[in-house]
Amino acid sequence: MMKSAKNAPQVEQPVCEPELSAYQKAMRDRLLAAPVMPAPAPWQPVFEPCVPVGGLLGIGFTTHPDSGHDLVMVVSHDGHGLFDAVTGKKIARDRGPDPQESTPDEAADLTCPGLGPVAGSRVHIAGLFGGGLHTTTADSWLLEVVTPAWPNDRVLLSRDGGLPHSGPYGERWWHIFHSNYSELRAVGFSPSGQTLAVATSSDLSLWTRRTDQSRNDSADT
Hints:
mainly beta, globular, 5-stranded antiparallel sheet
């Protein structure tokens, strides 16, 4: 005997997302059409093109107590590392941090202990476990992450309000990174505004706007 259709469980109908407006479609198409290009002056890449860090979990900024350079602390499955954000040099490495402090989620404020020249301090880490970096600078540079073709994130750099909806591409805003091979972990400026970082699950990219002379002097010391 067949069960009556009226007694069959009701299947909830999916809620349809509203269609994109003409403005939204135009914005998405504009973002999709923007190729990756170098960051504009005065930004210069620190690595060519990046430094591989397998199993990267997050990054954080601190300052060298002697040179005043921005430092980037990297937390990964293989331990902790510290890079000079001006010269690109790895200046400290800890392959076996205390298991209780090896990842930032062990601390209420998402910090890990510093190492090398910043040993004894704690560094806020942004990435897989949460947290965040500066997305603006005092002189109006702005970083934005967009995903017009999920799940691949794109990092946009703009100046003086040159967001993708206002201002010509390559003059007011730039698509500087396309995360189409690894998961994006963290994007942001250092507190000084002199360093720009993009971290994925597999690598770290840095840009600096220190002058050539200051970079050369750093390499010689």
